[in-house]
TrEMBL record:
GO terms for biological process: polysaccharide biosynthetic process. The chain crosses the membrane at residues 37-65, 77-97, 109-130, 136-159. Belongs to the GtrA family. This is GtrA family protein.
Length: 167
């Protein structure tokens, strides 16, 4: 445990230290994390697409299963699983490196997958709501934004939170 002196006062441990930099520094730090999380998310959208289409074209089509709904569902699920696993890896190593210590673990991975699943449910539910009131082109975009905010918040607060509630 690191001991520090603050204003020549009592010695305080790391968890007792006041936040550094104030609100502007916190917003900047979290904004950077959100941007990193978003860039990784966009990249994993491409990973999801590539795996889904690749499995469909290279595996299902030669097997005559390209029109088979369960097979297509499995291809899509595989694309999502590869993308969410890659997202966990990259967010652990980069976006939340400080919080995770750049250490991969099964409990954290399972929390990340669970939070991604909740984010997916939020996206689907908000799409089904939005499509009733907005044109399809907007109804498809709004849920992506809501899911992004929900996914980032869950990753930040529940998956990669530091002990003692400090971020």
């Amino acid at each position: 445990m690191v001991q520090k002196r603050v204003d020549h006062g009592a010695v305080m441990n790391e968890r007792q230290q006041p936040p550094t930099g104030g609100l502007a520094a916190t917003l900047l730090r979290e904004g950077r994390k959100m941007l990193s999380f978003g860039v990784i998310g966009v990249g994993n959208g491409f990973v999801n697409y590539a795996v889904t289409v690749g499995v469909t074209v290279l595996v299902l089509t030669p097997l005559g299963l390209a029109a088979n709904d369960p097979a297509l569902g499995l291809a899509k699920a595989l694309g999502w699983a590869v993308a969410v696993s890659n997202s966990y890896l990259l967010n652990t190593l980069f976006t939340f490196a400080h919080e995770s210590g750049r250490r991969l673990s099964w409990p954290t991975y399972l929390r990340f997958v669970a939070s991604g699943t909740v984010g997916l449910a939020i996206e689907v539910a908000s799409f089904l709501f939005a499509v009733r009131y907005l044109p399809l082109s907007l109804a498809a975009i709004v849920p992506i934004g809501l899911a992004f905010v929900a996914n980032f918040a869950m990753a930040r607060l529940f998956v990669f939170s530091r002990p003692g509630g400090r971020h």
